[in-house]
């Protein structure tokens, strides 16, 4: 069983949003077309309370993209983004969600960030996604979404660690930082992930 994992395709991560990923909305037609090729489609949603400690605004004298130690974990500070009950937290309106069977939210605990759709950044708490996928008989996980160098990357690493055959659809993701994305993809390949372009899936019968 093959699952497509749509990572954080939310208003705040596309141009005009509060943590815009360059060209982030360009992936939406692709991920919409990809969905029919999968047995199961699942989405993740970054879902922070106001005042989340990953926000620079929560730390006096800090600016977005500063690095701090947050309760023992390295933390990049972000602009306020994906705050619960704001327009930016919603899945992008152009994303076709008819085939999305479940949405896994992450980043709710105020004192720890959560890039991966599987675990928080300290690997302290699981979202339940791995058990859900296993319960549905999923063996292969394909990742698309935003951002390629953060939430897609860390979700793919955890998918590998959880024993799923893991694929990243490289043209169905965009990154915050191009260099970081190259490093992330190389690291994923080293760990056993396979990279492919959406055409490989869309052109197969
Ligand atoms: C993300 C930074 C902070 C992401 C989420 O979805 O890649 N990046 N929160
Ligand atoms: Zn976030």
UniProtKB/TrEMBL annotation:
Keywords: Hydrolase, Metal-binding, Pyridine nucleotide biosynthesis. Residues 3-197 form the Isochorismatase-like domain. GO terms for molecular function: nicotinamidase activity. Coiled coil: none annotated. InterPro entries: Isochorismatase-like_dom (IPR000868), Isochorismatase-like_sf (IPR036380), Isochorismatase_Nicotinamidase (IPR052347). Pfam families: Isochorismatase. This is nicotinamidase. It comes from Hymenobacter jeongseonensis. The gene is pncA.
